[in-house]
Amino acid sequence: MGNSAPSLVTHHSSPITHYNKRMRILAIDAGNTRIKWGWYDGVRWLRQSWVASAGADKLGAALAMVAPPDRIVISNVAGSAVRNSLAAALEPFRVEPCWIEGQARQCGVTSSYGDPAQLGSDRWAALIGAWHLFHGPCVVVNAGTTMTVDALSNDGVFLGGLIVPGVDMMRAALVENTAQLKLDEGRFTYFPDSTADAIMSGAINALAGSIERMLRLMQETGQIAPLVVLSGGAAALLEPQLNARVELVDNLVLEGLIRIALERSE
Question: What are the residue boundaries of the structural domains of the chain, listed by start?
Fold first, then answer.
C-alpha cells in the first residue's frame, strides 16, 4: 500500500478566456504570508507572481515591469500596514483601487452571513471564482496559513464555512505547547513510525478530515456530488489524501477578483 489515496484531480491555472481584451486588470490578493498578484489583459493572465507580506514595500519594484492597468482590484486580509504599503506601491498607476469586501450578493453568489461584510474578502473572492469556474455545489478550500472550508450550494448560495489552523500553524502549536517535541521535517504516512511523521500526518489528516466532513454535510443536506475546489500553498499536500473529486486551482482568489472587476465594468 502506498501513502496516497486516489483522487480525481484537474489543474486550472488560466481558465478565464473570453472577455474584453481592452480591459487590463491588476488583481492583488494580500494574505497573511504572501501578496499574490496577477496582470490580466482581458483574455488571459500575462503574469502572476508574489512577494512576502512582510516585505510588502517591495511590491512597487515588482510592479514596475507591468503596463498601467485600467482597473485595480484588491483583497487584503493582512491588516492596515500592508494596505498602506499597497496603496503607496500603486500610486504611480493613477488608478483608484477597488478594495473588495464581502457582499450580500455579487457575481451570481449570495452570502448567508448575517453580516456579509464580516466574511473575509479572500474567502468571498474564492467563492466567486469557484462559482464561475464550475457553476455547481462546491467545497471551496483555501489551504494557506489558515485553512478555510466553505460550502457553496448548487444555486450559488454560500451556506457557511470553517476556519482552521493550517499545516504549519498546527505543527508549530504542538511544538510550542508540548514538552519535548521538536519541529523536525516530517512526511505523511498512514502509519507514522517517528514523531516528526506523526505530527505531519496528524496535521494533514486533521485538515483532510475537515474538508471531507464538510463534503459529507453538504451531501446529507441535499447537495448532489459536491466538488472540492482546492487552492493555496498546502494544496499539494492535501490533494492526494482526499477521498473526493478535486479540482486544483492556482490562485483561486485572483480568479474571483477578475470576475468582480469585470462585473463592475459592465
Answer: 8-166+202-265
Handedness of CA 97, 103, 109, 111 (dihedral sign): positive
**Distance separating alpha carbons of residues 129 and 252, to the nearest angstrom:** 6
Is the pTM above the cut of 0.85? yes
Are 212 and 243 spatial neighbours (Cβ–Cβ below 8 Å)?
yes
Q: Which of 3.40.1190.20, 3.30.420.40, 3.90.550.10, 3.30.450.70 is the CATH number of 8-166+202-265?
A: 3.30.420.40
Encode pLDDT of 124-152 as tens digits. Answer: 999 999 999 999 999 999 999 999 999 99
- Closest C-alpha among 60, 90, 42 to residue 258: 42
Cβ–Cβ under 8 Å, residues 1 and 190 = yes
Q: Grid cell 478535486 — which residue?
A: 246
CA dihedral for 196, 201, 204, 207, sign (positive or negative): negative
| Rounded CA separation 56/176 (Å) | 28
Which residues form the catalytic set? 122
